Amino acid sequence: MIPLQQVMFVVGKIAFMLAGAYPLLAMLERLFSNFFKKIGARCGIDDISVVSLLGNLATNLLVFGNFKNMNNKGKVVCSAFAISGAFVFGGQMGFVSGVVPSMLVPFMVSKFVAGIFGLILALWFMGQIAFHIRQQGFESPSYIINKNILFC
């Protein structure tokens, strides 16, 4: 059985990482809001989605808490990143650094690569869906997503 002192050390690292994530994200949102709007405009997502992607690096609770404020494409992109790229600087990083510190760099690299790959795939699939919707004569992809119509 694992000693209680080691368990509390790992839990403390996780709590420390998450406690600093929320204020840091709020500060970044205030300082770089115009920059986040420009990045979001290039990808077709809103600034809340860009901030949520950054917050996803610590915990995905920020993403799912902001879902009601995101546009549809932002929801898909943030969810795709949350599958494999979340918790790079959050709880999982605290756990890995407490249990196997030598695996911290490979852990972070693999999470970043998987998250970016998921993000790129989501953007590509959203572009493909929008293309097929326009071919079928609908005006916007949000019409299909909002009406819960599923097509292949």
Write the layout of secondary structure elements.
Blueprint: H1 4-31, H2 33-43, H3 47-56, H4 61-65, H5 72-84, H6 91-99, H7 104-135, H8 141-146
Question: Element order, helices and strands?
Answer: HHHHHHHH
Total number of helical segments? 8
Principal-axes geometry comes out as elongated
The low-pLDDT segments are 146-152
Radius of gyration: 18 Å
Structural class: mainly alpha
Overview in brief:
With 152 residues, the protein is mostly helical. It has helices at 4-31, 33-43, 47-56, 61-65, 72-84, 91-99, 104-135, 141-146. The N and C termini lie far apart (50 Å).
Describe the structure.
- The protein has 152 residues and is mainly α.
- It has 8 helices and no strands.
- It has helices at 4-31, 33-43, 47-56, 61-65, 72-84, 91-99, 104-135, 141-146.
- Residues 146-152 have low confidence and may be disordered.
Name the features:
152 residues, mainly alpha, 0% strand, elongated, disordered C terminus
